[in-house]
Amino acid sequence: MELTNKGVYGNREAWEKAGYQVPTFDYEKVKAATRENPTWIHFGAGNIFRAFQANVCQELLNAGKLETGLIAAEGFDYEII
């Protein structure tokens, strides 16, 4: 098993058999729709983003209730660190 788009979508059965949940949406279709019509952007892709906003987006995509993905924008500043 390979953790890449090709590895996950091309070998869905192996991932599911191993106990992993595989996205149920068409990744390439969502990526294209997001580029054409971005609808959700989040600034600051830290741990809270990964735990909440990204998960909400994933669940909505899997349920077919969202057609575009979430764009995460991160600023980097040595002063913050």
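Second entry:
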Amino acid sequence: MAEIPKIVLPHGGYRNLIVYKKSDVIYQGTVAFCRRFLPAHGDRTVDQMTQAARSCKQNIAEGSAASGTSKETEIKLTNVARATLDELIEDYLDWLKSHDAAVWAASDEKVKAAREFAINNAEWPAWKPIFESRSPETLANLMLTLCHQTRYMLDKMIAAQEEDFKKHGGVRERMHAARTAARGEEWDKSVFSRLDSANTAEELE
């Protein structure tokens, strides 16, 4: 019997993606920051910041889950994740400015150290002790550094998803290929991109 391609391909695996892990640190760190330094009641900033951080993480997960059937939805949700980081960056900048705290310059040695730490630590347990002891100025700047890194990774991911869609299409092309194969005819194997057919965390990254 001739090989008939699958329409819904392996998808998900987002928990193993570095960008997802970083987004989880952003969420956990934002929750910890708000608990320590913002009032528990009466300040809408808490809800705005935690919701933006959660939205980034959730949209990465939902985009990954949707990738098996809809590349369009995957791209859209990844873009939403990226946009919510822009919102969160503004929230941290606003907090620093409103509290007369310094926004670290890109050339500052502290930023270089923060970048290095963020590159080498993508799990919340490594960050948790820092959020229990450091000053709000330090933590806000650390979060800004991590947000910028994660946004850059999302930009690269979106570009790859868009290129993948342009080259290989989406579920419609796979449905056509499956129908063609079912009739015993030659079908276009190019519609099955590496990103779509990833079976392991390494391939998904």
